[in-house]
Each structure stands twice: as structure tokens, then as C-alpha cells.
Amino acid sequence: MLNNLPYGTLRAFLTPFLMAGFRPKVKGLRNVPAKGPVIIASNHLSFSDSIFMPLVVPRKVTFLAKSEYFTSPGPKGLLKKLTFIALGQVPVDRSGGRRSEAALITGLKVLAEGDCLGIYPEGTRSPDGRLYKGRTGIARLAIESGAPVIPVAMSNTDKIQPTGKVIPNLHRVGMQFGKPMYFDGDSTDLLYLRDVTDQIMNVIQAMSGQEYVDTYAPKKSKPDDINVAGEED
User: Fold this and answer.
1) Is residue 169 within 8 Å of residue 125, measured between CB atoms?
2) Phi, then psi, of 112 in degrees rounded to 5
3) Could you tell me which residues come within 8 angstroms of residue 57 by beta carbon, excluding any fewer than 6 positions away?
4) Which of 100, 103, 151, 212 is the most exposed place for a label (fewest CB within 10 A)?
5) Helix-helix angle 137-145:190-208, to 10 degrees
């Protein structure tokens, strides 16, 4: 309840300004189920993807972030915690094992509660606007939870807020939501996990029109978020 309060407050405050200033062009939003567990899988061009996309989705979109963002001391730490909560992010406890496994467990908990989980399968922002190879954590999540995957193509957010830029540029942002994709099968089969992930990425690429790169995107030394995509082949 308390976690939903800052999220709802920030959404109510930002929506009229962002809608008027950036005039989002949205297609296929009806493909997002009104209730029940769902995974929204998007390309990732800018930090602002995590702001624009959740604003148009009628239900709360939950992303995952390092638990350290929620435990920093002092007023600055509290502000950081409230900011991440307001952006719909929940902490990932990585103390018990690999980062990818901790993110998977947290993501499955979100889906088990019937909520909407936002994921960037590339695992980090594209450094050059191209679409990079997806990591297979999303396939495990989809198979083990039974939740549908809604592929999403964001456009122009890299022009709105290029990496390192604080004050955004005014450009019209685009979002296209694809039809639900359902997967079942053996979540321990690495070849199958790769195939499922590639199917999702192929749909995103077809919608976004981005050039596809069949390698993993290079990760920054200080990532701004952790996405449930961290399985390695």
C-alpha cells in the first residue's frame, strides 16, 4: 500500500506534463491484459523508457533494481529510495547468490502476485540505437510463471534523453505493444531458452525497425538498473 502511494502520486503529477510535452504515439495498448500476471518486454534506448512506458499502461509496471538503492543512509538515501519506489521499482536481494538468479526469484514473486513486470531483455541500454541480443532470463520467467509476454518497441526516447543528458529534448515518443506471446516447456533446456528469447527479440525488432546485433550489449560500469534478463547461455 505504501509502495503504491509514491508511484500513484508521481504518475498523477507527471502524466499531464509528459503527455502534453512529448505527445506519446501509442499502438496496441489493448494487448496488455487488464489483470493477471504479465511480462512487458521492451527494447531499451534511454532511462526515460522507464518513465514513458509505465505512464501509458493502465496498471502498475514493476521493474527490478539493486537492493543497495533502497538502503542508502541519510536524507539522500531516503530520496533515492522514494524515487525508485515512485518509478515502480522493487529491490533485488543479491546476497544469496548470482545476480541473475536473485532477479529471477524476485521477478517470479511479482508475477505470482498477479502483477505486471517490466523487463529489458537486452539487460542494459543500447549504446548506439541498435537492438542487441536478448538474455535468456526472460524465457525462464515466461515459462516458469506461465505469464504472457507483451513485446514493446520504444522509439525516439534516445533522442529525448541521450545517455548523460539530464534535461530532456522535446521529441514525440512512440510506443508499440505487440500481441501476447505464450511459452511453456522445459526451463532448464538452454537451447530452448535461447529460442524463446530470440522469438521475443525478433518481434521487438520487427516493430522497432532497429538494426539487430547478434551479440550482447556492453554493460556500463555503473548500471542504472537491473533487469530480469541476466541468464547467460
Assistant:
1) no
2) -65, -25
3) 29, 32, 40, 116
4) 212
5) 100
